[in-house]
Amino acid sequence: MPTRFAALKKSPATKSGPVRKAAPGRPAGSKAAEKAEALNDKYENIPFDDSRVVKYRETPGWEVLRQVAAPIAEVTDEIRALVDEMGDIMYTAHGVGLAAPQVGRSIRLITYDAGDGLTALLNPEIVKMKGEQYEPEEGCLSIPGLRGVVKRANEVVVKAMNLDGKTVQFRAREFEARILQHEIDHLNGVLFIDKADPESLHMLTPAQERGEAEPGDAPVAPAE
Length: 224
Ligand SMILES: [Zn+2]
Hints:
By secondary structure, this protein is an alpha+beta fold. It has helices at residues 31-43, 77-92, 174-187, 192-195, 206-209; strands at 97-99, 109-112, 119-130, 138-140, 143-148, 155-161, 167-173, 202-203.
């Protein structure tokens, strides 16, 4: 556990939080929480390894996390290979989103899976935002174990280039909108700790972090 956040440790994490597994026959707190929960289940069968993710203030060259990433001019074989690699890194690190700076590349590329499979976006930008949401708690693969409440827009319209080199524009809500805002922040050198309610920041237990929480522990949303 990174000692730098030790003072923030509060355990158990989200005992009364919204990402708790719903009791049989009862709905979870919100659609976003349900999606996060479904992803937790999905990652249960993938051996955890986050060694290829750049860790904040830890990995040599971590400063890449604080840089504004460069736009991508075109989809090359190198970009396609990087997308494959990022997808692999993201799933083995049990993440739901990953930005290129988190693998040491200061370019505007993100991958994510909000429950509908792997999506890659190049030069993504938010062109519209609406409403607000506060759950589930956010985490970041570059800051292992830390979680906190971040106020995000509930709905965003994102414009980006896809892997075919075409410009796409689409609307995303709730959990997907949260992931997109988190990842696009990464491309601007912004981390969730910059936006989280400081009072809400807390460390997970190592078991919760690996998604191996014992029954009774509060399950948590995957990191991004
Ligand atoms: Zn992150």
